[in-house]
Write a structure and sequence with these properties.
Blueprint lengths: L1 H16 L6 H5 L6 H4 L10 H11 L10 E4 H11 L4 H8 L2 E5 L2 E4 L1
Antiparallel strand pairs: 1-3, 2-3
Helix pairs in contact: 1-4
């Protein structure tokens, strides 16, 4: 559940930042930001009670990310780029953002 709270935190932090769209929907659906939107899997997502709890915690003000605005799964991002034959966006994270911490397979940045 903590990881889900953190993903919700990133979305809410973006809404509040002024550097991203100012609604949750616009942040989530902003082009090239979240893999489940880009690959369409968001349409097949099942909302679990754990997800609802995580979102409620984030909406209540619990921020486990220290203000993170980005996250990535380094291994999954690298594989996705190899399949596309595109440049490695992992390098962009490393060279343009400040690494905050790792939780499970996800790294969080600001």
């Amino acid at each position: 559940i903590e990881g889900r709270v953190m993903v919700a935190n990133v979305i809410l932090n973006r809404v509040e930042s002024g550097s991203f769209p100012n609604t949750i929907t616009k942040v989530v659906y902003q082009k090239h930001q979240f893999s489940p939107v880009s690959n369409g899997s968001i349409k097949r997502c099942k909302v679990t009670t754990e997800t609802v709890e995580a979102v409620e915690r984030a909406l209540a003000g619990e921020d486990l990310t220290d203000g993170a605005l980005y996250f990535m799964n380094r291994r999954a991002s690298s594989k996705m780029n190899l399949r596309r034959g595109s440049s490695n966006n992992v390098r962009w994270f490393d060279s343009h953002l400040n690494f905050l911490f790792k939780h499970g397979n996800h790294e969080f940045f600001r």
